[in-house]
Write a structure and sequence with these properties.
Shape of chain C: elongated
Number of helices of chain C: 7
CATH architecture of chain C: Up-down Bundle
Structural class of chain D: mainly alpha
Oligomer: heterotetramer
Chains: A alpha+beta (390), B mainly alpha (596), C mainly alpha (214), D mainly alpha (132)
Order of helices and strands of chain C: HHHHHHH
Number of helices of chain D: 3
CATH topology of chain C: Four Helix Bundle (Hemerythrin (Met), subunit A)
Strand content of chain C: under 5%
Order of helices and strands of chain D: HHH
Distance between the termini of chain D: 64 Å
CATH class of chain C: Mainly Alpha
């Protein structure tokens, strides 16, 4: 029955359980409303035929509508509409509240393309590769105008605004390729701002994370609608817009965070190996109770860390000088995300086995050491010093 | 009783009503011999008085007229031209969608064409068409007044509309706008098109609707004929009252929004620019606070026309006069509470989405009351199937169909899938084209005899109305399916699998255009060769059918006495007699010393 | 002596007066909604940046704001008594009062422009332009001052229109030697001036009093 | 307006009361009411507005239609302001305190970052709109 109704109404295949529930409500609401509409028209036609004018000047009785009849009609309609709303709003809350254990992917909408950055490392343009049967939470922002991340197969969309983060979560239940559209008008090539959600098995996903190109994992359907899969793009390399396959080393976001910390001079006051320096160390800082100069303690979570980047003096850590300049308006959203991932990664040793000799840094008046870790420094040196944005 | 052609509804032998020559009736004798004389000669004047358009026929007399009927005709012509332009733009848009790739124009042109289609259709046709054209023409006559409360202000609205139209056309030529009719920042602040002239043009046009609203409200309050209480006014006047209230309260907020976007785009003041602390969702609140009541500005006059046509052609009193009158105000005020359902996915808080969702459901109930009362009023009526009634059926089916999809969209979770897709395009076209445009056609055909003194041809009328109905279904029903399939709005390119439905929809527009052109042709034809219209072709009881068609410059030579309820079809049509309080001295003073 | 002519379609002068007053009130209703957009913007951003708005309000000079408030309240009283005197038949006092109200309006505009001058000198321009915003880059400031310029600017334009109307009315009373029954024509302009005064009664606390209240 | 004239001192007294209220509001603004400052100031302003409206604008002698209008118009202002601000108040807390995006030519703002220069022709993505 679901399949039959879905085909009649030209709805795309339901890829998530939430989509199936929404479609159930869809069938009920459209069914009842269409019945109501045809009922009204048929009643009008029947009355026209039944009470057609027999002779000119025919007089008609003065029929006053019963107040009770009117009230009955109104209250029944009110109850019906409000039940639609109650069911609808519950589903809306399910759409809007992502589960706690969801895997996070950072999405940036930019004039006429979608970019995805995975905490584990690769970032792609136009193609969101996710494992099947796994909660995925997208933390989305826009670089210029309002876009809207819309996946018809999930029956969900969410506007993406510059200057704000919006969340969008789903749990794909079938492997396959689902189209992404931009639903909010955003300029010249708004109609070209497409993308794909590629749902693969968990093993394939892990192999993809470690660098296997997607084309080897799954044979993607050819044809114009599918975006060419771009993997391992490197934000520092300028590349063509529509996701030509490109080269680049697997850089985890934490690595990139460290590069940003170097460039912005954070490492001239903060250390990564637990040493106390001009500013508090970042190792083990994530989620720790920090005691502030004002006496109260606060948990070092994302909100606290980003606020102290923007106006450091507000929640100064006890026992440290208030010398940190504000980074308000200096950091890109992606850079903030990268630094957060770096701090989060410092709980456990860095996956790439980076060793940090101590002490690391000189006082700020001297230029910071150009490299942090001898082996990796060589790799980073040949990166052109260009703008940063995953 | 043989059914006579042309003039079926006047019972043989009944005295033709007050406007034309009235054979002596007992009413006059009772008014005393002396007064009978004045009554007779005044009626003499009435019969031979020339129609309003024949009074003076210089161009200047039309440009400087303060006669509400001429201003109604000028607005009727101007809004019809706007409909023509908007319709051509719509046809071009649909041509573009024949193939997923560029077909007739480039992406930049496409963006400007759909913006212009929106701006012209919404502000230059849908909002002013029925209130300014038919409202100006018929509300004073229906109330038994000679003119609106502020005639010169009424003329000013014509010029505001003209200046607005010219500034918008200049804006179109000087770079146009490609932001859609919603002008969402930050794109409207950064777009390369010169947006500001079009914004100023619509701002000036906004003044025209506000002043029309003020004029109609004051006319309804102060110029009703003696004895006509609020509950005895025709239902069309109630609809005009409701529309004018919304126009007066909502349009200024649009004016402010347009000014802010002009400052944003022109002088980069950055009200909503996130880089300078602004919030984009605040703009959407302000814009939709106006734009949702605006859609009720578009549908309420249509409901007023439908109430008139249903009751007149079924010769039946409304099932409950109070239900329709009060639900007009229900829609007018509830319309202001529901704007949030345009912003469910825009990043508004979940709490607000819930509040606006449930409030939107209640607006649907007021419309349902009206539909229930209309269909209920046809019960036990004496219905004659004429062209206006065919348009009423089209209205009933399309309005309820479109309205119900509105209820479906207000169930918040469904809107998340439908928002900004062709489902929404189909929903609001079902209401704007399906309901408002069909009601506009019904109004044209219902009042054509009164406005022009000519009868249109019934056969062609019904044929054209059926063509319009079928063309509409063929155009917009596929768009519901496109929306379900996930086809987003304002898309120049689109995925291949949507092409079949797009071709069907484009074919539908050709049938719709054909139906409308046929209607245009036979209406113009009837202007010259149509049969002379009798005073009361439908046998309706409202006051505008008690004056000669076309009416004279001052509608009623003497203020009429209100005796018969406007929808009392249980006793024969009574001749409208002059007001017994008629005092020749006052009347002479009024009738001779005319305002220019 | 000028006695207003009854329009042919109004039954009597009283009905015509009511129509004029109702028409003006509806127009003032729409003008209030015209300002409503900006009031909503102020309320929204004050909730978003409470402290920055208080700092911004401290930046405006409370003295000039209060003088303006007194001026407009005085003007509103004078024009109301002018209508009353016209009804009492004393045209001379009425003319002087209307002229005085117009003068108070001009003074208001003068004070307002000096305030704008002070802001420009401090490097505050609408749209977050100016060195003031570079020195304290708090995101709330550009939005506060843009709303300040928009709201007070729109209000000053309305005051200017009011001054022109009042001047024309003062001249009309003297030239036509208006009699009491014609007083309602002045009443219409008085309504507009009271409306302008009411808007400022709300703008004054919003932009001058609700600071950090030291 | 055509209504019977009132005594010559009627309107000056009303004006004095409104001026007095303004003075009260000014003094209160120096007392530092904290959270209560906004409701008190707006409350005093509303009382002043009602006084001016009821007496100076002759609502006390106007017919019901005018009075109804004088009540409805402010209601709509309150409706728009309250519902828009409610949206802001009830928004879910941001997952991250987001820095506002860098906008080319942000007047008075910090120097523009190198690299991806945002703006319509950014990133060579879309061809410049004119050269279609």
């Amino acid at each position: 029955m679901n399949e039959f109704l879905r085909l009649i109404l030209y709805l795309p295949k339901q890829a998530t359980s939430l989509a199936r529930d929404i479609d159930q409500l869809h069938y009920w609401v459209i069914g009842i409303t269409m019945a109501g509409a045809t009922g009204v028209a048929v009643a009008a036609l029947w009355f026209t035929f039944r009470y057609r004018r027999r002779y000119e000047g025919e007089l008609t009785p003065q029929v006053q509508g019963g107040f009770a009849l009117e009230m009955a009609f109104i209250s029944s309609l009110a109850i019906l509409f409000v039940t639609f709303w109650v069911i609808g709003f519950q589903q809306f809350i399910r759409i809007r509240t992502p589960p706690k254990d969801a895997m996070v992917v950072y999405v940036t909408g930019k004039q006429w393309m979608w970019k995805f950055a995975y905490p584990e490392g690769p970032s792609t343009i136009g193609t969101l590769v996710v494992p099947v049967d796994r909660n995925v939470k997208l933390v989305m922002t826009s670089r210029d105008v309002i876009h809207s991340f819309y996946v018809p197969a999930f029956r969900v969309k969410q506007d993406v605004l510059p200057g704000r983060y919006e969340t969008f979560w789903f749990r794909a239940e079938h492997q396959g390729l689902y189209k992404i559209f931009c639903a909010e008008y955003c300029g010249l090539n708004h109609s070209k701002m497409w993308g794909d959600v590629l749902v693969v098995s968990p093993e394939d996903f892990d192999r993809w994370l470690r660098g296997t190109a997607v084309e080897d994992l799954v044979n993607l359907p050819a044809g114009r609608d599918r975006q060419v899969v771009a993997t391992f793009d490197d934000p520092y390399v300028r590349r063509s817009p529509f996701g030509v396959v490109l080269e680049g080393r697997p850089l985890s976001m934490a690595d990139r965070g460290r590069m940003v910390a170097e460039r912005r001079g954070c490492l001239s006051c903060h250390t990564l190996d637990g040493q106390r320096h001009i500013g508090p160390t970042w190792r083990g800082l994530w989620g720790r109770e920090v005691s502030l100069a004002t006496g109260e303690t606060v948990r070092a979570d994302e909100a606290y860390l980003t606020r102290s980047m923007m106006d450091p003096q507000v929640q100064l850590v006890a026992g440290y000088p208030a010398v940190m300049p504000t980074y308000q308006g200096m950091l890109e959203p992606a850079e903030v995300g990268a630094i957060l991932e770096l701090i989060r990664a410092l709980e456990a040793p860095l996956p790439t086995g980076v060793r940090y000799p101590s002490p690391l840094m000189e006082p700020p008046d001297r230029p910071p050491l150009s490299h942090v870790d001898p082996e990796r420094a060589q790799q980073n040196r040949d990166l052109p010093e260009e703008g940063v944005a995953p | 009783m043989k059914k006579r052609r042309g003039n079926p509804d006047i019972e043989p032998g009944a005295p033709s009503t007050f406007g034309a020559v009235a054979t002596g009736t007992e009413g006059d004798r009772a008014a005393g011999p002396g007064r009978g004389a004045e009554l007779a000669d005044l009626r003499e004047v009435a019969v031979h008085a020339k129609p309003y358009y024949a009074d003076e026929t210089t161009i200047w007399s039309w440009l400087s007229t303060t006669d509400h009927k001429r201003i109604g005709i000028i607005f009727f012509v101007m809004t019809s031209v706007a409909l023509l332009i908007g319709g051509v733009l719509a046809m071009v848009l649909r041509l573009e969608h024949l193939t997923p790739d560029p077909t007739v124009m480039s992406a930049a042109t496409y963006n400007q064409v759909f913006t212009l289609h929106g701006v012209i259709m919404v502000w230059f046709f849908l909002i002013p068409s029925i209130p300014a054209a038919f409202g100006n023409f018929f509300v004073p006559i229906m109330l038994g007044a000679q003119d609106v409360a502020f005639p010169r202000l009424n003329l000013a609205t014509v010029y505001f509309y003209l200046v607005g139209l010219i500034v918008t056309v200049v804006g179109l030529v000087a770079g146009g706008a490609d932001t859609g009719w919603t002008f969402y920042p930050p794109y409207s602040s950064q777009t390369f098109t010169t947006l500001v002239p079009i914004l100023i043009g619509v701002f000036i046009l906004g003044w025209s609707t506000i002043l029309t609203g003020i004029n109609l409200i004051v006319t309804i309050h102060t110029l009703r004929a003696k004895g006509m209480k609020l509950m005895q006014m025709p239902l069309f006047v109630w609809a005009m009252y409701g529309v004018s209230v919304i126009q007066v309260v909502a349009t200024p907020v649009l004016g402010m929004v347009l000014l802010i976007i002009s400052l944003d785009h022109g002088l980069d003041w950055g009200f909503f620019d996130p880089a300078r602390g602004g919030d984009l969702i605040l703009f959407q609140h302000l814009f939709w606070f106006y734009s949702h009541p605006a859609v009720y500005i578009m549908i309420l006059p249509a409901m007023g026309v439908i109430s008139e046509v249903v009751l007149a052609l079924s010769h039946k009193n409304p099932l409950s006069y109070k239900a329709i009158a009060y639900s007009t105000f229900g829609i007018a005020f509830a319309g202001f509470l529901t704007w949030g359902h345009h912003m469910f996915v825009s990043g508004m808080s979940t709490f607000d989405a819930g509040v606006f969702g449930v409030l939107s459901m209640f607006v649907g109930i007021f419309s349902a009351i009206k539909v229930f009362t209309w269909v209920g009023s046809m019960y036990k009526g004496s219905i004659s199937l004429r062209t206006p009634l065919v348009y009423v059926f089209a209205f009933l089916f399309l309005f309820v169909f479109g309205g119900m999809t509105g209820i479906a969209v207000a169930a918040t979770s469904l809107d998340v899938h439908w928002h900004d897709t062709y489902f929404i395009v189909a929903h609001f076209h079902f209401i704007m084209v399906g309901a408002s445009l069909t009601a506009w056609f019904a109004a044209i055909h219902y009042w054509w005899p009164k406005m022009t003194g000519r009868m249109y041809s019934e056969a062609w009328g019904i044929a054209a109305s059926i063509l319009v109905f079928l063309g509409f279904i063929a155009t917009f029903f596929p768009q519901f399916l496109l929306g379900n399939g996930g086809m987003p709005r304002r898309y120049y390119y689109y995925p291949d699998h949507f092409q079949a439905l797009h071709v069907m929809s484009t074919a539908g527009t050709w049938v719709l255009a054909l139906g409308m052109t046929i209607a245009l042709i036979y209406l113009i034809f009837s202007l010259f060769y149509g049969a002379r219209a009798p005073m009361n072709p439908w046998g309706a009881r409202t006051l505008e059918w008690a004056v000669p068609s076309p009416p004279t410059r001052h509608n009623f030579e003497v203020t009429p006495l209100i005796e018969q309820d406007p929808y009392d079809y249980s006793n024969p049509l009574r001749e409208v007699r002059p007001n017994p309080l008629y005092d020749p001295e006052l009347e002479r003073h009024r009738s001779t010393e005319r305002s220019p | 002596m000028y006695t207003p002519r009854v329009q042919p379609f109004f039954e009597d002068l009283e009905k015509q007066r009511h129509a004029a007053k109702l028409g003006m009130w509806i127009f003032l209703g729409s003008e209030l909604l015209f300002f409503a957009g900006l009031f909503a913007i102020y309320a929204f951003y004050r909730t978003l940046y409470p402290e920055t708005f208080q700092l911004g309000v401290d930046h405006n000079s409370k003295l000039l704001g209060s003088i303006n408030t007194a001026l407009l309240i005085l003007g509103s009283t004078m024009v109301a008594s002018a209508v009353n005197f016209l009804r009492l038949g004393q045209r001379r006092i009425a003319t002087w009062l209307v002229a005085a109200t117009a003068a108070s309006g001009v003074l208001y505009i003068a004070i307002k422009s000096t305030e704008y001058g002070m802001h420009f000198s401090h490097g505050i321009y609408p749209g977050g332009v100016g060195h003031f915003f570079a020195e304290n880059p708090d995101p709330g400031f550009p939005v506060f001052f843009t709303t300040y310029f928009a709201l007070t600017g729109l209000h000053v334009i309305h005051v200017a229109i009011g001054v022109a109307l009042l001047g024309w009315k003062a001249w009309w009373i003297r030239r036509d030697r208006v009699d009491p029954t014609g007083a309602y024509r002045l009443g219409i302009v008085a309504l507009y001036w009271h409306f302008v005064d009411m808007i400022w009664l709300f703008l004054w606390p919003m932009f001058y009093l609700l600071g950090t209240q030291r | 307006m055509s209504e019977p004239p009132v005594s010559r001192w009627f309107f000056p007294i009303i004006g004095a009361i409104v001026l007095g209220l303004a003075a009260v509001s000014l003094i209160l603004s120096y007392l530092g009411l904290g959270w209560w400052a906004v409701p008190v100031a707006i409350g005093i302003a509303s009382v002043q507005a009602i006084l001016v409206g009821w007496f100076s604008m002759e609502l006390f002698e106007s017919r019901f239609s005018v009075r109804m209008l004088a009540i409805i118009a402010p209601l709509f202002v309150i409706l728009l302001t309250v519902l828009a601000t409610a949206d802001l108040a009830s928004r879910a807390p941001e997952p991250m305190q987001v820095p506002p995006p860098i906008r080319a030519g942000f007047p008075g703002g910090p120097p523009q970052l190198t690299g991806d220069a945002p703006g319509p022709e950014a990133d060579g993505a879309g061809r410049s709109p004119s050269a279609d």
